[in-house]
Specification:
It is a single chain. By secondary structure, this protein is of the alpha+beta class. It has 2 domains: 110 residues, 2-Layer Sandwich (Phosphorylase Kinase, domain 1), CATH 3.30.200.20; 237 residues, Aminoglycoside 3'-phosphotransferase, Chain: A, domain 2 (Alpha-Beta Complex), CATH 3.90.1200. The protein contains 14 helices and 9 strands. β1 and β2 form a beta hairpin. It is globular, with a radius of gyration of 22 Å.
């Protein structure tokens, strides 16, 4: 066991060394210095297959850049990240500027937005007015993304050809089932009970897939929003944008990665803010009751998807110290949504979540 662990660590170390060599060679050529002179800082990705590095031409150099390193070379013409970046830029959405693309080396060079995510910014603020203003700016960006739905179709963006259809939503819920009940809780359900839980999950996916669709970021939580050096909000990790329900991005922004479930009254206020932001973008009005129902149902699906990710990172990858803390509050948030007035019954799913949840 010890030998296997050491071998794995050695392989990870060797892979890291190779990644840094690739980045140093590229950055040295791009910045006009030797690879050894490149100042390199490895940045920790958030459950990502990509690696990120901050690079500069040498110690004391004021200008820094971000290198996004992919596992393998790619064709820039087929890059969803570059495609969605162009779409968002045309729509006036604040994404990082792409400065260079080296597809054969698996590299995208971007401007450096700094280290302050919205999540960290909010943690460091005590002033309610500041927090409220920044939260509303983030909500306004959701409406602006949705306002770019027609542009996505007109420009032939890959985002317009992808959707949160029944297969995609169902895949995410199956991922939750496998890793929350399997990797984390090690449940051994009888076939009949497992079938009933999965039937509830399929019903949720089918209903959400049938809802009207707008352009969605797809992973719009506070770690994927940066507060840049000028104090402006910038959107990152947008390569998986696709069409989906109007509530899809709002749910993770308001509810995800919380140590305590969000206050119900506060959520209602932010929902009103979102509806007002949509109106200011000239988007069609949403029926209030239908919107609230969809928000609750979307909360169930999106939070279960997040629980699946947190469970995988905890039970499989071994990063439970960070991700494990969010699982309990997320389960409570799902149960609250399942108990909301007017919510359809999903008895097998609800019972399975309630077990062991104090």
């Amino acid at each position: 066991m010890t030998v296997q662990t050491s071998e794995k660590a050695a392989r990870r170390g060797a892979t890291g060394d190779l990644s840094e060599k690739r980045v140093r060679r590229y950055a040295g050529r791009r910045l006009g210095v030797t690879p050894r002179a490149v100042e390199l800082e490895a940045l920790t990705p958030d459950a990502s297959t990509r690696k990120y590095f901050r690079v500069a031409a040498g110690r004391g150099t004021p200008e820094t850049f971000i290198v996004s390193l992919y596992q393998t070379p790619f064709n820039p013409q087929n890059s969803s990240y570059l495609d969605v970046t162009r779409l968002f830029e045309r729509a006036g959405l604040p994404v990082p500027r792409v400065l260079d693309v080296a597809g054969t080396e698996g590299i995208i060079l971007q401007e450096d937005l700094g280290d302050c995510s919205l999540a960290h910014w909010l943690e460091e603020r005590d002033g309610a007015r500041e927090v409220e203003e920044m939260t509303r700016r983030a909500i306004g960006l959701v409406a602006r993304i949705q306002a770019a739905s027609a542009l996505a179709a007109e420009t032939g963006s890959v985002a317009a050809s992808l959707a949160f259809d029944e297969d995609k939503l169902g895949w995410e819920l199956n991922y939750f089932y496998d890793h929350f009940f399997g990797s984390l809780r090690h449940e051994d359900f009888a076939p009949e009970r497992a079938g009933a839980i999965k039937s509830d999950l399929r019903a949720i996916a089918a209903e959400l897939a049938a809802r009207p669709r707008v352009l969605c970021h797809r992973d719009y939580h506070a770690m994927n929003l940066m507060v840049d050096r000028q104090g402006e909000l910038r959107v990152i990790d947008h390569q998986d944008a696709r069409m989906g329900p109007a509530t899809y991005d709002l749910v993770p922004l308001l509810l995800e990665r919380r140590l305590v479930p969000a206050d119900v009254g506060w959520v209602a206020e932010q929902q009103d803010c979102f509806l007002a932001a949509r109106a200011s973008e000239g988007l069609p009005a949403l029926d209030q009751a239908e919107f609230c129902y969809e928000f609750d149902l979307m909360t169930v699906q999106r939070q279960l998807k997040a629980i699946g990710t947190f469970s995988y990172q905890t039970g499989v990858v071994g990063r439970g110290e960070y991700y494990g803390q969010y699982i309990g509050p997320a389960v409570e948030t799902v149960l609250r949504a399942l108990r909301a007035p007017g919510m359809k019954e999903y008895p097998a799913l609800r019972a399975a979540l309630e077990e062991g949840h104090g």
